[in-house]
Fold these 3 entries.
Entry 1:
Amino acid sequence: MSKKTGKLNKVEKFYIENNSDKEVSQIAKDLNRSEASVKKHMKTSPRAKHTSEAKSSDASSLMGYNDRGSTVMTPAASELSDETRGKRLSKNGNHDAIHKIK
């Protein structure tokens, strides 16, 4: 069976973007596409970059941005923020000065 040629369709692009944690060879095999076309889309896709950055400890890279200046916290950014909450609070040097209302 020969590999598909031509542009990637929307479904294939969506699959690549949402499975960027898989090996490129596996994605190419699943889509019956060449590895070069899969790599090319992964490099140009902004969403694939954000999903690969999910492993970093910076929640700002996981935020959703708009060309008009608005920013939205994505579910991935929220989860990462919740996971790192203890580390962020222990770094605070003024922890003694914070009073919590009971």
Note: The chain has two domains: 1-55, 57-91.
Entry 2:
Amino acid sequence: MHPQSVFAERSRSLRAVRPLRAVAAVLAIAAAGCSPAPQTAGASAIGAEWRDFEGTWTAAGSRQSIALGADRKASVSTLRGSLLLSGASRPAVGFRAEAVVLNDSATGMVGRAVWTDERGDQAWSELRGEGTATGNRIVGTFVAGTGRYAGVTGNYEFSWRFVLETEDGTVQGQSVGLKGRVRGGSAEGVRP
């Protein structure tokens, strides 16, 4: 091949590669800007003093039900949503909240919930409630957690109302009167 032809071929190749490099550089910068903020080591624990809070839990998910005779029904619900807290001593502003609940219209409900804060630290709780046709007061008891919620203790209570229920089992709802208190925890918690 003639030297001028080789030079012309390389020039065309470089012109074709430059836009690809520019696109790769833009994507790399965009990806760096979208990555989560670095977590600070030793995030402060919530402390030994009681922290009172109020809030609103909204969630959507699915519910499967079976009839246990004419007047009794059992259901399993899986819900995911957000929990926003208020109060000067609240443990955090908001959480991603998930729950799995077994409800029997005659005997009540039991369930488990996981609250995950903006750092990824979690608070785990057991749920128990009336969940019957005549009442639905639910009590959550904190049992453990990770990060700043390791060793957490306390409880919260609320009522639940479904705002959407479809025939295929899709549900949406929100808490009513959610309030509680929490204390304890350790900065060196277990990471999930």
Note: The chain has two domains: 1-35, 51-184.
Entry 3:
Amino acid sequence: MKKQATNTVTSEAESQAAQRTSQQVSKKDQIISLFTTGVDNLEDIALMTNTRTSYVASVLQSAGLISGYFDLYTTSTHPMNTYSRFFAGKLSFKNEEVAKQSVELLNRQYRRFEIARDRAGQHHALMMGLTMYNRARWTGKTREADIYRRWLLNYLNEPDLRTEMSTEPEFSEPPPMTGMDEGQTKPKQE
């Protein structure tokens, strides 16, 4: 009986020691370890480490294990395309004044791309504005976010001049849903 109690105490002590050791391993170390041992699905790693996929990607990209991943939280020091260099490390929402300076840069670049008829450049400027807007608002910087929001709306509300495109609509309207009211998924029973 005494031997069984000793074994139980020893097992519990070993279990607690193992838990302490696993708690001391950082999330970053866990992510890198999982990836280097063959788990290459970012969503799976996020699930196993109780983190978000964007964090997993950030850790792996910083460690040089992956490249080419981009999302809302990817640092601008990882170039997404040729336009990234115009904005890398230059946009912020630290305070309202810095956000205004950042929007001025976005505006200058957008207009520069417009003059060059570089639609991809304009798209990237808008995308950077949207990224900064979302980063600011989701960290509680509502006044700073609003500066980006107003800038975006200015361009999103511009009429589409289509000077270089045909007058045909880019997308056709979906066919009307007959026998249904808006929001209804099944035809009415008559």
Note: Confidence is low (pLDDT under 50) at residues 180-190.
